[in-house]
Design goal:
The chain contains three helices and 13 strands; from the N terminus they run αββββββββββααβββ. By secondary structure, it is α+β, with helices and mostly antiparallel strands. A five-stranded antiparallel sheet has the order 2-1-4-9-8, with no helix packed on it. The radius of gyration is 20 Å and the shape is globular.
């Protein structure tokens, strides 16, 4: 390789590195979450989205991931996790004390969101909303679309499944599985995406979004 060829190669490598740094500095979006009610996107104000006590939709756009982790909760266990720390970090592989998104904690939900509900619980619960064409199961509504590598999906919410009340065993089924019209608490919502490569101790957090759903 002569000096000119070496110069060209180094220039290309430096340019590529510079582009990568610029993209990361600007912040790459791996997913987008919007709340839609009555066909309109609900605007966020100071991290809060105000909804009527009627059905709504989580509208998801997955740009560079096949799925995202989600916590819908009555409390702030996931919500208050520091922004400068990896929400996938976990130092306790046995009891998961002070651990948030850990794969083995992921719960099961009904196929294709047949019950049109979301599971709301404490720090013991998290879920994974994903789409893979070769899978015969998914949490998302039917009708997922993939265009130019971008996945568009929805999760319709007509009902609440209260995991805390169910686990307490002091409530009837109608008290922990009920229509959204009966909701009387805020929901603290956290979404996150990660990537894992062989040799990594924990997945790397790529993006996190959080907001509060309040109902009137």
């Amino acid at each position: 390789m002569n000096k000119f060829q070496l110069f060209v190669l180094l220039t290309l490598l430096l340019s590529s590195c510079r582009l990568i740094k610029i993209n990361k500095a600007e912040g790459e979006a791996y997913f987008k979450v919007e709340i839609v009610q009555d066909g309109k996107v609900v605007k966020e104000k100071n991290g809060v989205l105000t909804l009527e006590k009627r059905p709504f939709v989580y509208q998801l756009t997955l740009y560079k991931v096949t799925g995202i982790d989600v916590s819908n909760s009555w409390g702030k266990y996931y919500f208050d996790y520091p922004a400068d720390k990896n929400i996938y970090q976990c130092e306790d592989d046995r009891y998961f004390i002070d651990c948030r998104f850990v794969a083995v904690k992921t719960g099961n939900e009904d196929k294709y969101n047949e019950n049109k509900d979301i599971y709301v619980g404490d720090g013991d619960y998290q879920f994974h909303w994903f789409y893979q064409e070769d899978s015969d199961w998914r949490r998302l509504d039917k009708g997922v679309k993939v265009e130019n590598g971008v996945t568009y999906a929805q999760v319709t919410v007509e009902n609440i499944y209260d995991l805390d009340k169910r686990d307490a065993r002091d409530f009837s089924a109608s008290e922990y599985a009920y229509p959204i019209e009966k909701i009387n608490q805020d929901i603290y919502v956290v979404f996150a995406a990660s990537q894992y490569e062989t040799g990594m101790e924990r997945p790397e957090e790529l993006q996190r979004e959080k907001f509060i759903l309040t109902f009137e």
